[in-house]
Amino acid sequence: MVVSFKLFFWLLKLGALANLYFLGRTFTFPLASVDAEVLIPAQILFAVSAFRCLFPVRYKDNIVFHNSPLSSVFLTRLFATFSEVALIYQLAHIIRLLNHDQIGWVDSLSWGMVVIVVVSQIFVWGSILTGRRMLFFYEELGWTLIYAINTIVSAYLYATVDNFGGREILLQVSLFFGLVYLPWQFIHLRVLWLDARGEQARTKVTWNSLARGLHQSIHLKNQTSDPKAWGGLIGVMWMTAYWATLIPMWMCLIVIINTI
């Protein structure tokens, strides 16, 4: 039984090196010449993911690995807000690029992904400021809808479009990701739902309570490497895939393929 995540968090810093490598490549030719709507979101994600690998935090209970001013729930969430909106904007943009026949419902769903990720940001900020865990569930439900849409639309385009100009791998990766992520995410949602149902009734939200939540998000740091505090195996899988491996590599692939 694992009693500490210390080793994991030190190894996670290798993910920062990978992200910085990807980021550096985007400033060199030919990647630097890619469409800004593809390139800039990737650059934002690489920079923020590197930061999160170096200074990991967990919003629930203000858990941190390093007791550092940079290990701040508020600061991390601020960066992550831009990163997550940029990530989904890029995926939605790719859908529209590959929608050669300009099918209306496909473009509409791609923009719907962007709307949903913005709403999810509202939910996660609401949970941080109010302490209501159910809002975390609603945030993750938004991510489930986003990647379900991305998977369905990718499957439709892959089945109906004849020539992608060498970019069909982008749809193949989207399909693979969806088939792996969505079953895992339903398990994650169940864990969040059970956790939220067990929380105690809270007092009414007021300006004072929101100010207190904001202050705690900036200053409160509960330093620990206890596996339970970090979400156990689900937390490890999520941090590794999102910050250090799958998502950064996916975004790098998108940039590279769009140099064709």
Describe, in plain words, how this protein is organized in 3D.
- The chain has 260 residues and is an all-alpha fold.
- The protein has a single domain, classed as Up-down Bundle (Rhopdopsin 7-helix transmembrane proteins), CATH 1.20.1070.
- 72% of the residues lie in helices and 2% in strands.
- The protein has helices spanning 6-25, 36-54, 73-98, 104-130, 134-160, 168-197, 207-219, 232-244, 246-257; strands spanning 57-58, 63-64, 222-223.
- Strands 1-2-3 form a three-stranded mixed beta sheet, with no helix packed on it.
- A hairpin with a 4-residue loop joins strand 1 and strand 2.
- The longest helix is centred in the C-terminal third of the chain and has 30 residues, at 168-197.
- It is globular and about 55 Å long.
- It starts with 5 loop residues before the first helix and ends with a helix.
- The model has no long low-confidence stretch (mean pLDDT 95).
In brief, what are we looking at here?
This protein is mainly α and 260 residues long. It is built from nine helices and three strands, in the order H-H-E-E-H-H-H-H-H-E-H-H. The chain is globular.
Strand content: under 5%
Radius of gyration: 19 Å
Number of domains: 1
Helix content, binned percent: over 70%
Q: How would a crystallographer describe the biggest sheet?
A: 3 strands, mixed
Which descriptors apply to this entry?
Rhopdopsin 7-helix transmembrane proteins; 260 residues; mainly alpha; 9 helices; 3-stranded mixed sheet
